[in-house]
């Protein structure tokens, strides 16, 4: 069942009927809606399609927001930690590449930088 903005033109009584009907519906339902209250009462999982990525969250709308924000914070922490490590390695290479005694270590760290799989800065759609 595909529902696109199902509550847009419904009164409260009809919206309540639709909520009750969908709670007991036995098939799959895809709902596209800006009605957060409706989503919070109906959904049990959300697929967030944002910035070319799809991520599945289990729970109602309120739980989705909490989980999505935690996921974003974790990804941002990972990104910032990697950026600090990149800066540390780049600084070491810059300071030591020309010194004979530390040139080998600087080259090794430069190779580490080249091989490092970079984490993209996490982005979040507007809330």
SSE topology sketch:
Layout: E1 2-4, H1 12-23, E2 30-32, H2 36-42, E3 45-50, E4 53-58, H3 61-96, H4 103-115
Parallel strand pairs: 1-2
Antiparallel strand pairs: 3-4
Give a description of the structure.
This protein has a domain of 62 residues. The radius of gyration is 24 Å and the shape is rod-shaped. With 127 residues, the protein is of the alpha+beta class. The strands form 2 sheets. It has a two-stranded parallel sheet with strand order 1-2. The protein has a two-stranded antiparallel ribbon with strand order 3-4.
* Succession of helices and strands: EHEHEEHH
Q: Count the beta strands.
A: 4
**Distance linking N and C termini:** 26 Å
The value of Rg in angstroms is 24 Å
Q: What portion of residues is helical?
A: 40-55%
- Percentage of residues in DSSP E strands: 5-15%
Q: Kindly state the mean pLDDT as a whole number? A: 93
- What spatial form do the alpha-carbon principal axes imply? rod-shaped
Q: Give a short account of the largest sheet.
A: 2 strands, parallel
